[in-house]
């Protein structure tokens, strides 16, 4: 065998077949058939003098890509010379092996070879996980078919029997390889085979399916596998070598061969394929572990253990699922957003079955979005670090494209510099998470998170200034979501200027007044927008990578921000408008004359508006908030006022359980609490403390100087949780102070509450009392 077999295989990989749909599978089948023919011919040449019986007890078998029939034009051959250990002597087997291997080396083939008996195959597989996975696909080339079938059966049986105990070893081996080689979705010169999301992971995915512990996904992941194989084949062809790493120097040629407009489009497709493989592997590993636990722990019939999360959602076996009595009817974007939020907050995966059930009939959203739908989406963005895997699942399922069609332009788009760790879309989500960690630093977290999500939406092919080009796109998205004109302008400004602060801080003289004026002009001279821009700047840099946010750079940004803040403070004083006086509702008079509180619950599209009118007393705010908390509702907004000794409280609530509190029940509860009977609130004490969201920032409470001449104004920013307002109210009551009026609002899971507080005699608090109250409020927020 003296021909250049490698050259023959390259000739079979016709360059014209790379752009024709479905040609990749045909090409690889043709290459596999050619390789089998060559190897069979070699086998016949070596054993030509032997009788048919003389060939029993020995066989040539393939493993790896050759046995799976997905080898590339220049992939190496993984061959095993099998023998039964009886028919031939060791010397005969050694001579036979040399007669096979040397001609293959001479013909230019890269060869990985071994000589084993059935028992040796099983021993190697039990000791080497990679070898076990490889031999699951063992395929006959020539020789004793029964011998190869016996190895295949034995290795498969051992794999299915032992994987339950070897699962930790498998997971650890994956982790070590991924740490060593890297991630296919983040590397600019990725290893198509060994990196996370690469061809080796696809092999592991198939091996998991063969264990019978869990089936694997089909469809999208198979298409992703074909994409990676096509890129690998093209890489072999353009380099003339059996490479697996897609180097920068080769990307243009590979892109041209595959019909992509440029190398960025090529990398985007590779990244998207790797994301599909990674997601499929992670999910299959999770389901295999679930199956393993079920088989280990099951004793007779067992009902599923469901932990309620609200809105018909439950935690089950480490996933968030839709409850059995809550099947979606038609297009329900709202429920899908709530399910995603629940999963992200709990740092759990959202069940693929649940995603599939909820997305199946999703229709395009109307413009503008309903208010409750927008609130649900912004709450999802405020979920914290758990947002990253949940968003990935939604994106791969095609849901994000329905919500944000503009996302398609930046999906998996590479960023070709050493600063950025992630693709444009992943970087945007990481920026959102970083903003969540700094939620207490800004007044309107919802606008900041939306701006963070779309701040790089202009990073598309041909963009010269992505901030400038992305701003109108961001404004269009915000407008479609139903934000009012003023909020749309803020989102557009933040996207347009998201590089301004760091550019001015690092490229201009901070001591020059013109530098400060340029920054103030970018934020329209507003202190709240300066806070938003400062937070977005830091989050953007941290999401990019450690090189983007050095101590030096942060110092320059902080100094310029301090100078601009001082200049704004000199020009303006805080403007805080105390809640206006509501007119007493005529319907409340009869109840008040009887000495009873008046309650009206009016259903709204998002939940309900609850009007509570009662004679003012100490602790009324805490009692009202506590009663609502016992019903498991989410307070979206509240307005608390006191008029002529009457407290008029309006609460905008959302009921996660679907049941609104009853008017009579609330009225009885307020009456009992006014008498000192705390039984209506005892259920709160029985609840376990609410888990603090992962990565949530600390609570923040401050006195707003000069905001009122007749009261002390305290602003509170804290991650929202059940019972938070009651705890804050108790802090006021315990300290002996009165909440005269209040604005309460929740933006994307972050409260922004303003309280007008007086002493018992109706006077503003003195500084020591205010400081003590601030400490008490922060302690209450922290639980």
What is the fold's blueprint, element by element?
Layout (H helix, E strand, L loop, with lengths): L4 H8 L10 H24 L11 E6 L1 H4 L8 E7 L6 H17 L4 E6 L1 H10 L1 H7 L3 E5 L1 H37 L17 H12 L9 H20 L8 H11 L4 H35 L9 E4 L2 E4 L2 E4 L10 H13 L6 H8 L11 H11 L5 H10 L2 H5 L20 H14 L7 H10 L11 H15 L4 H12 L3 H8 L5 H10 L4 H18 L6 H21 L17 H5 L4 E6 L4 E8 L4 H11 L2 E11 L2 E10 L7 H12 L7 H5 L13 E4 L8 E8 L4 H11 L3 E10 L2 E9 L8 H15 L2
Parallel strand pairs: 2-3
Antiparallel strand pairs: 1-2, 1-4, 5-6, 6-7, 8-9, 9-11, 10-11, 10-14, 12-13, 13-15, 14-15
Helix pairs in contact: 5-6, 5-7, 6-7, 8-11, 9-10, 9-11, 10-11, 12-14, 12-15, 17-18, 17-23, 18-20, 18-23, 19-20, 21-22, 21-24, 22-24, 23-24, 26-27, 26-29, 29-30
Distance between the termini: 79 Å
Number of domains: 5
Return residue spans where pLDDT drops below 50 for at least 5 consecutive residues: none
CATH topology-level name of the largest domain: Biosynthetic Threonine Deaminase, domain 3
CATH C-level category of the largest domain: Alpha Beta
Q: Which strand-content bin applies to the residues? A: 5-15%
Q: Determine Rg (CA atoms, Å).
A: 33 Å
Mean pLDDT value: 85
Number of helices: 30
Largest sheet: 8 strands, antiparallel
């Amino acid at each position: 065998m003296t021909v250049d077999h490698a050259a023959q295989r390259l000739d079979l990989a016709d360059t014209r077949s790379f752009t024709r749909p479905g040609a990749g599978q045909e090409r690889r089948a043709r290459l596999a058939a050619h390789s089998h023919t060559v190897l069979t011919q070699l086998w016949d040449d070596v054993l030509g003098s032997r009788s048919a019986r003389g060939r029993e007890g020995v066989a040539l078998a393939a493993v790896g890509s050759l046995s799976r029939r997905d080898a590339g034009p220049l992939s190496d051959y993984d061959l095993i010379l099998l023998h039964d250990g009886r028919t031939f002597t060791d010397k005969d087997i050694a001579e036979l092996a040399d007669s096979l291997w040397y001609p293959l080396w001479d013909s230019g083939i890269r060869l990985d070879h071994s000589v084993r008996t059935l028992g040796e195959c099983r021993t190697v597989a039990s000791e080497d996980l990679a070898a076990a996975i490889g031999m699951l696909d063992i395929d006959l080339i020539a020789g004793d078919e029964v011998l190869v079938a016996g190895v295949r059966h034995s290795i498969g049986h051992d794999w299915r029997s032992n994987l339950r105990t070897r699962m930790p070893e498998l997971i650890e081996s994956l982790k070590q390889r991924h740490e060593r080689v890297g991630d296919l979705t983040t590397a600019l010169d990725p290893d198509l085979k060994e990196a996370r999301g690469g061809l080796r992971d696809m092999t592991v995915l198939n091996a998991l399916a063969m264990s019978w512990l869990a089936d694997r996904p089909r469809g999208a992941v198979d298409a992703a596998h074909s994409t990676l194989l096509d890129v690998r084949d093209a890489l072999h062809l353009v380099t003339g070598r059996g490479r697996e790493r897609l180097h920068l120097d080769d990307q243009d040629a590979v892109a041209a061969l595959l019909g992509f407009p440029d190398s960025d489009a090529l990398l985007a497709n590779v990244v998207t394929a790797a994301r599909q493989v990674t997601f499929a592997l992670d999910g299959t590993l999770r389901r295999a572990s679930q199956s393993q636990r079920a088989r280990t722990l099951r004793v007779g019939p067992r009902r599923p253990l469901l932990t309620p999360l609200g809105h018909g959602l439950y935690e089950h076996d480490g996933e968030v699922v839709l409850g059995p009595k809550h099947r979606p009817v038609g297009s329900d974007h709202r429920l899908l957003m709530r399910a995603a939020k629940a999963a992200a907050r709990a740092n759990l995966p959202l069940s693929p079955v649940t995603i599939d059930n909820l997305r199946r009939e999703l229709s395009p959203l109307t413009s503008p979005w309903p208010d409750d739908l927008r609130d649900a989406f912004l709450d999802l963005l405020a979920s914290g670090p758990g947002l990253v895997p949940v968003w990935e699942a939604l994106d791969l399922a095609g849901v994000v494209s329905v919500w944000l069609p503009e996302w398609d332009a930046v999906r998996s788009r590479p960023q070709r510099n050493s600063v950025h760790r992630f693709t444009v879309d992943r970087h945007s989500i990481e920026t959102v998470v970083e903003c969540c960690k700094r939620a207490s630093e800004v007044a309107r977290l919802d606008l900041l998170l939306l701006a963070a999500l779309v701040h790089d939406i202009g990073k598309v092919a041909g963009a010269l200034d992505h901030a400038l080009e992305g701003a109108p796109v961001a404004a269009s998205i915000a407008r479609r979501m139903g934000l009012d004109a003023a909020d749309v302008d803020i989102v557009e400004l933040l996207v347009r200027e998201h590089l301004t602060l760091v550019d001015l801080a690092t490229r201009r003289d901070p001591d020059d007044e013109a530098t400060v004026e340029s920054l103030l002009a970018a934020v329209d001279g507003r202190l709240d927008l300066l806070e938003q821009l400062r937070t977005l700047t830091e989050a953007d840099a941290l999401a990019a990578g450690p090189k983007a946010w050095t101590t030096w750079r942060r110092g320059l940004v902080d100094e310029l921000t301090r100078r601009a803040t001082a200049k704004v403070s000199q020009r303006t004083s805080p403007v805080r408008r105390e809640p206006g006086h509501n007119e007493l509702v005529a319907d409340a008079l009869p109840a008040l004359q009887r000495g009873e509180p008046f309650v009206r619950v009016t259903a709204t599209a998002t939940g309900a508006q609850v009007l509570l009118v009662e004679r003012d007393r100490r602790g009324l705010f805490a009692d009202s908030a506590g009663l609502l908390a016992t019903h498991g509702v989410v307070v979206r907004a509240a307005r608390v006022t006191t008029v002529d000794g009457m407290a008029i409280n309006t609460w905008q609530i959302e009921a996660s359980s679907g049941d609104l509190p009853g008017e009579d029940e609330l009225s009885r509860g307020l009456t009992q609490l006014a008498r000192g009977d705390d039984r209506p609130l005892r259920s709160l004490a029985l609840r376990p403390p609410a888990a603090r969201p992962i990565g949530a920032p600390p609570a923040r409470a401050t006195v707003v100087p000069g905001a009122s001449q007749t009261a002390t104004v305290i602003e509170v920013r804290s991650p929202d949780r059940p019972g938070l307002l009651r705890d804050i109210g108790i802090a006021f009551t315990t300290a002996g102070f009165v909440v005269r009026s209040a604005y309460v609002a929740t933006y994307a899971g972050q409260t922004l509450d303003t309280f007008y507080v007086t002493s018992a005699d109706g006077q503003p608090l003195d500084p020591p009392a205010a400081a003590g109250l601030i400490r008490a409020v922060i302690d209450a927020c922290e639980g």
